[in-house]
């Protein structure tokens, strides 16, 4: 049996979702936002939303944001990792679905994305998601450096980004 990790995924992640917790014990979590907007696999969206809140939230009190991961298996038996961040107070869950097992990277990214949401910086959140979604995935073993210079440090109207591939 071969690896369950998909080789050469098309993008860094498949979909990002922001889900609100169910309002009642018999209610479903509500999908508030998704990227890309044209992601059309409704079965996957329902599964991800349910995994965001797989437990009763009646007695749940989360003082700080918490991270967790789940795994979905696709029709080719390849693993897709759901990286989730439950917001402080457990009202929202931010989730990235990816074939890449980049735990630390995606948890840090979810922290930034949840901050953008809390601060109502939807434009910045979308811009970051667009950049990461279209960014080519570095080859294994090839060092890769990515830097983003905030708008406040630039003379241009948009963020300036510098991407540098190093090594042979």
From TrEMBL:
This is UDENN domain-containing protein. One of its GO terms (molecular function) is guanyl-nucleotide exchange factor activity. Gene3D superfamilies: 3.30.450.200. PANTHER family: DENN DOMAIN-CONTAINING, DENN DOMAIN-CONTAINING PROTEIN 1A. Keywords: Guanine-nucleotide releasing factor. GO terms for cellular component: clathrin-coated vesicle; cytosol. SMART domains: uDENN. GO terms for biological process: endocytic recycling; endocytosis. Pfam families: DENN, uDENN. The keyword Electron transport does not apply. The keyword Transport does not apply. It comes from Albula goreensis. Residues 13-168 form the UDENN domain.
């Amino acid at each position: 049996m071969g690896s369950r990790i998909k080789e050469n995924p098309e993008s860094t992640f498949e979909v990002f979702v922001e889900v609100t917790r169910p309002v009642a014990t018999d209610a479903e979590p509500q999908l508030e936002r998704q990227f890309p907007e044209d992601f059309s696999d409704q079965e996957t969206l329902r599964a991800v939303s349910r995994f965001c809140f797989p437990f009763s939230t009646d007695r749940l009190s989360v003082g700080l944001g918490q991270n967790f991961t789940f795994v979905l298996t696709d029709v080719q038996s390849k693993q897709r990792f759901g990286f989730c961040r439950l917001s402080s107070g457990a009202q929202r869950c931010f989730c990235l679905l990816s074939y890449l097992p980049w735990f630390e990277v995606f948890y840090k990214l979810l922290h930034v994305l949840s901050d953008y949401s809390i601060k109502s910086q939807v434009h910045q959140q979308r811009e970051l998601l667009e950049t990461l979604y279209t960014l080519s995935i570095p080859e294994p073993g090839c060092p890769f450096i990515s830097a983003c210079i905030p708008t406040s440090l630039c003379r241009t109207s948009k963020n300036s980004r510098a991407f540098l591939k190093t090594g042979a």
